[in-house]
Design brief:
CATH architecture of the largest domain in chain A: 3-Layer(aba) Sandwich
Distance between the termini of chain B: 35 Å
Oligomer: heterodimer
CATH class of the largest domain in chain A: Alpha Beta
Strand content of chain A: 15-25%
Radius of gyration of chain B: 17 Å
Distance between the termini of chain A: 73 Å
CATH class of chain B: Alpha Beta
Number of domains of chain B: 1
Structural class of chain A: alpha/beta
CATH superfamily of chain B: Aldolase class I
Shape of chain B: globular
CATH topology of chain B: TIM Barrel
Order of helices and strands of chain A: EEHHEHEHEHEHHEHEHEHEEEHEHHEHH
Strand content of chain B: 5-15%
Number of strands of chain A: 14
Helix content of chain A: 40-55%
Structural class of chain B: alpha/beta
Strand order of the largest sheet of chain B: 5-4-3-2-1-9-8-7-6
Largest sheet of chain B: 9 strands, parallel
Strand order of the largest sheet of chain A: 3-4-14-9-10-13
């Protein structure tokens, strides 16, 4: 006897006994929704009226010409409400939460995009909402934390472990084992115990379904290659699902190369050979771990890709060679992002910029009658502090110094005011 | 698991003399391996009947803040699986009570499930509690444990249905670990009538001895459990005492429970 939810040897549900009935309930709700055509209809209706679906594909005219070789297209997930593909998953799970009759949602977040998306969904559906975020990420992503709190969510800064995404996931599970009766855990990526990898990929498949049709409509054929960045793997699963049966389309997953090879300097589980198969956070996949099975620190300029594990479905595609995995380093990523901003007026998130970096590397070697498609999974507004540092913009620095001085003065005035009162 | 394990026999024998046994929990290597040894010695002298030795893991998802921190500190201080196994071997050879390992599945998976179980057998560890390994995912583990006559201990919870309890019991040996409430280790538990009903339901669904844990920390809790369970488990509270008052305070605390 084996639990369902395996993709060759990857996946499974390694969960504490206290959650077994909660996962049984979630699995049945998911399977019923999947069988119910009206559920998907309601989902599409919601995504086209509350978010911006269908998101378009855009040809990168200038860069296609400058780089030579293949024509480059981007699938514009940045145009979703809240600025990333995360909305697709969150709204779907929101509908499922309603269906299960639960009134509270919790979520982990790395970059903060999934946290913002979940807080948005909670505000719209009227759910209570708590977001777990590594303290390190809270420090990196203040603008997202600001919006989550404005939307009424409680943001908990997790100070355990490496204070990043994996620690936020552990903490969300700890909340869930206590409050599962009224709470749904909106896991943000195609990882975790069954049915999450499959369910999140299902909601994200809306990207690939649209993109395939759009490429056919706009270019008359399928793209030669499709690029997506891979953190947990949900945006990649989303766009790849549209092309997985098309043998002529090569799928390329791009992981965080960080500072390059060697444990601790990156988050490339599949492209580099530093990861091994293990079981943590409720599922089996490739993890960046030591020889005892202890999880190791990871690094990426983008908080959203800074994660020790990867979708079990992508580990499976790695073994079957249905997806090729590459890594882009921090420097390459910032360069690719600047180039995209400067020449196309598009602002890809640092996460998505990994896919752009790899596409720009490969496009010139391809034939001019080939097309390639990049999943632009999100926009970079949230990254403004990181990006401004990375490009070392002196005017931005002056602005922050001035702004800080204003706050400082305001605070002094307040203190003095209090003193007089 | 039809065969009675050494662990179950030892528990049943002790139950002839005492109505409620006491099991405690330590994290190996926290605050150091020398301290682990000392805490075990104090606990055994104070009258603890059996002990869980936790091999530290970086992602202890079922544990609350106290044990989570102990895991992290032990790893930071250089604890490895090999060192944990070595200290366990010493503990088992020096002290004459049953010892179990508690750890997460990745430790076994990485070490090799069969190799890990054989090592338990050769060290003299009598059973294992692996909270993130449901029977359906742990067939290799269950087979290896059975082959070596060791006890795989599974967990009952307040929202485990009767048929699931029977299934878990069928795949367990030694005893059943029943958690008194939802949530993670080390939080408050209300010892109430609801709990009595739940424990009665646990009893009805297993013939194995019943241990109760999660939030047991005082003489009153122990009195409440007497007659309703066979083993009281004190986990986070002893670790909290080490953290707040130092290693030397453990003995007095345990004595206050068994007095």
């Amino acid at each position: 006897m084996r639990n369902s939810g395996y993709f060759s040897q990857f996946g499974g549900a390694f969960i504490p006994e206290i959650l077994v009935s909660t996962f049984d309930e979630l699995e049945s709700a998911y399977l019923e929704a999947k069988d119910d055509d009206s559920f998907w209809k309601e989902y599409l209706e919601l995504m086209s009226t509350y978010s911006c679906r269908a998101t378009p594909i855009t040809r990168l005219d200038n860069l296609s010409e400058q780089l030579g070789g293949a024509s480059i297209y981007a699938k514009r997930e940045d145009l979703n409400h809240t600025g990333a593909h995360k909305a697709n998953n969150v709204m779907g799970q929101g509908l499922l939460t309603k269906r299960m009759g639960k009134t509270r949602v919790i979520a982990e977040t790395g970059a903060g995009q999934h946290g913002v998306a979940t807080a948005t969904m909670a505000a719209k559906f009227g759910f209570d909402c708590t977001i777990y975020m590594g303290a390190h990420d809270v420090a990196r992503q203040r603008p997202n934390v600001f919006w989550m709190e404005q939307m009424g969510a409680t943001v908990v800064a997790v100070k355990d472990g490496s204070q990043t995404l994996k620690d936020a996931i552990n903490e969300a599970f700890r909340d869930w084992v206590t409050n599962m009766d009224d709470t749904h855990y909106v896991l943000g990526t195609a990882c975790g115990p069954h049915p999450f990898p499959e369910m999140v990929s299902w909601f994200q498949s809306i990207i690939g379904t649209e993109a395939r049709q759009q490429m056919l409509d706009q270019t008359g054929k399928l793209p030669s290659r499709v690029y997506a960045c891979v953190g947990g793997g949900s945006n990649a699963m989303g766009i790849f699902s549209g092309f997985i049966d098309d043998k002529e389309v090569e799928l390329v997953g791009v992981e965080a190369g960080g500072r390059g090879r060697g444990v601790g300097g990156h988050a490339a589980r599949l492209a580099y050979d530093d990861a091994t198969i293990g079981v943590a956070q409720g599922y089996k996949t490739y993890f960046l771990q030591d020889k005892d099975g202890q999880m190791q620190d990871t690094h990426s300029v983008s908080a959203g890709l800074d994660y020790v594990g990867v979708s079990p479905i992508l580990s499976h595609y790695h073994e079957t060679r249905q997806v090729r995995f590459e890594a882009a380093t921090d420097d390459e990523v910032v360069e690719a992002m600047q180039r995209t901003v400067r020449h196309e007026g598009l602002i890809p998130a640092l996460e998505s910029s990994h896919a752009f970096a790899q596409a720009y590397r490969e496009a010139p070697q391809m034939s001019p009658d080939e097309n390639i498609l990049i999943n632009m999974s999100g926009r970079a507004d949230k990254d403004i502090f990181t990006v401004a540092d990375a490009v070392d913009d002196p005017k931005w620095r002056d602005f922050i110094i001035t702004k800080a001085a204003e706050y400082q003065m305001g605070q002094n005035d307040k203190k003095q005011g209090n003193g007089h009162a | 698991m039809p065969e009675q394990t050494k662990l179950e026999l030892a528990i049943r024998q002790k139950l002839q003399q005492k109505k409620l046994l006491l099991m405690t929990h330590i994290v190996l290597g926290y605050p150091s391996f020398d301290d682990s040894l000392r805490v075990v010695e104090d606990m055994v002298k104070a009258g603890v009947d059996l002990m869980e030795l936790q091999i530290p893991f970086s992602e202890p998802m079922a544990d609350g803040p106290v044990i989570l921190k102990a895991n992290a500190e032990a790893l930071k201080a250089g604890a490895t699986v090999e060192k944990s196994l070595e200290i366990a071997e010493r503990i088992v050879s020096e002290f004459d009570i049953p010892f179990l390992f508690m750890t997460y599945y990745n430790i076994l998976h990485t070490y090799g499930v069969n190799e890990f179980v054989s090592r338990c057998e050769s060290i003299g560890i009598q059973g294992c509690i692996i909270p993130d390994l449901p029977p359906a995912e742990g067939l290799d583990y269950l087979e290896a444990m059975q082959a070596d006559k060791l006890a795989p201990v599974h967990i009952f919870t307040p929202n485990t249905p009767d048929d699931r309890m029977r299934f878990l019991s069928d795949n367990s040996a030694g005893f059943i670990y029943s958690v008194a409430r939802k949530g993670v280790t080390g939080k408050e538990t209300t010892f109430s009538d609801d709990l009595s009903d739940y424990l009665a339901r646990c009893r009805a669904n297993t013939t194995l001895p019943l241990a109760v844990g999660f939030g047991v920390k005082s003489r009153e809790d122990i009195d409440f459990l007497t007659g309703k369970a066979d083993i009281a488990v004190v986990g986070s509270e002893t670790i909290r005492i080490v953290e707040d008052q130092g290693v030397s305070a453990v003995k007095g605390f345990v004595e206050s429970l068994v007095a």
